[in-house]
Design goal:
Elements lengths: L1 H10 L3 H9 L19 H11 L22 E4 L14 E4 L1 H9 L3 H16 L2
Antiparallel strand pairs: 1-2
Length: about 130
């Protein structure tokens, strides 16, 4: 929470003040320990979503931005209804997104994007 407030304060600085503070910022980063909850995902579900997408982001409909080390299109699997909010880890709730759209979903999570992704899963996986 403290970090969020600090970021808001930084965004309000004018360009001159921001540059001055950035030039004089400490060069060594501090560190902190955190505890996180990780949800185990089924690798079959993830692979299914990526293959089903055929290298195309299921939100922006553009090709994956690059190929991974194995030569496969680089896409993230995304749970339309987040696991942390009770979503299931199944092919009916998982879709492949490019890194930008995946970040967009986690930052914005717009209702129209959610509807579009749900419609694609229903149409392509054949449920509903």
């Amino acid at each position: 929470m403290k970090e969020v407030l600090r970021e808001k304060k930084v965004r309000k600085l004018d360009n001159g003040e921001l540059e001055n503070r950035a030039r004089t910022a400490r060069r060594k980063s501090s560190k902190r320990r955190t505890a996180t909850t990780t949800y185990e995902r089924d690798p079959y579900v993830s692979e299914f979503a990526k293959r089903w997408a055929k290298g195309i982001c299921q939100l922006c409909n553009h090709p994956a931005p690059f190929l991974n080390k194995n030569g496969d299109p680089y896409l993230h699997t995304h749970h339309i209804e987040w696991l942390s909010r009770g979503g299931e880890d199944s092919i009916y709730n998982t879709i492949a997104l490019c890194p930008n759209c995946h970040d967009k979903m986690h930052i914005m999570n717009l209702e129209e994007d959610i509807r579009e992704l749900k419609d694609k899963v229903i149409f392509n996986v054949g449920i509903g």
